[in-house]
Amino acid sequence: MLTAHKRPRRSIYFICFMLTLSLGCSTVQSREDLLQQAQAIRQSRMPAEAPVLIDSSTPIKTPLSSETIITTSVEVQGSPKPVLNLPFAGERLVYQVKFLGMMIGQMENSFIGHQRYRGKDVLVFESTARTASFFAKVFPIENRLVSYMELDPPRVVYFEESRKEGKYRKEAVVEFDYDKGEAYFYNDVDKSRKTIVIPHQVHDILTANYYARMIPWRVGDTHEFKIYNSEKIYDYIGLIEKQKTINARKYGQRSSFVLQPYAFVDGEKVKKGKITAYFDSGMTRIPLQGLVKTPIFGKAAFFLDEVNNEKFDGQLN
After folding, report:
1. Number of H helices, E strands in the chain
2. Is there a contact between 107 and 97 (Cβ–Cβ < 8 Å)?
3. Tens-place pLDDT, residues 215-274
4. Helix, coil or strand: residue 272
């Protein structure tokens, strides 16, 4: 039986980076600061571009199909009801990770499909991350995450993680019981168990990424989720800062939304780095690339290297 070891800080940085969810730091010090910044961005836009206000806790009534357009029952001020899109049929995305001019790793995100879990239809997502080349000899990493997300309401119901980071090992599952308001964590390596109090709607770092791609985006909008990560519940806010055309490497010039993510715990902002992420502004909302900055390790980047998604045309939107 493998035993757990204390994880080096460089591993923590690498995993946060590979999952594209950095817990940002900036001049923003509170949720209120961030919402004021979002309001200022919206006010600088034309009145016709007023943001869609989204209540992500609203139940969704829909047959489970990756081609389904989902209409929520949320009330929107001065705008038609928002729609949700699931453009994930057969999707597979591969990202390369670059640090100090070297390719240090690869991440792959996939939509596995539809399954039944405890009598309910769920969407299943998978993410794998591994170090590459010389870096793998210095500090090998091989991780895998699997998430089950139900859609009524949209939230994670099962989360599985396998981590091999140097000598560190973790083989854990988390089951979410929303009737009891609890999540149950179990690590098969050290046999540790933990019960975590949860609100009525939670995402993990994987389902949050996919769910964010389903909901409407406009410059100045904020997306707010409760996110489970490392046996804690974070308050996540993603600010859609602007729309920008970027060079997406092999996919050329593409119109993108610039996303700034922030995380808070008990009202305090988490300061572990900052990420600027660029999402395709077309219907797929595929993450194209991102820049990560940390006080210790400096800058690193991830970028889209392979796409399997029939709705992504590889052309400028």
Report:
1. 4, 18
2. yes
3. 989 999 999 999 999 999 999 999 999 999 999 998 999 999 999 998 888 777 776 667
4. coil
**Residue 41 is encoded by which pair of tokens?**
């961005």
pLDDT tens digit sequence for 90-106: 899 999 998 877 888 99
Going by their DSSP bridges, the two strands 222-229 and 203-204 should be labelled as parallel
d(CA 271, CA 266): 13
Higher pLDDT, 135 or 11: 135
pTM of the model: 0.79
- Say how far apart CA 214 and CA 83 lie, in whole Å: 8
DSSP characters over 2-49: ----PPPHHHHHHHHHHTT-----SS--SHHHHHHHHHHHHHTS-GGG
Q: Which two tokens stand for residue 310?
A: 């029939």
- φ/ψ (deg, to 5) at 136: -65, -30
d(CA 70, CA 81): 11
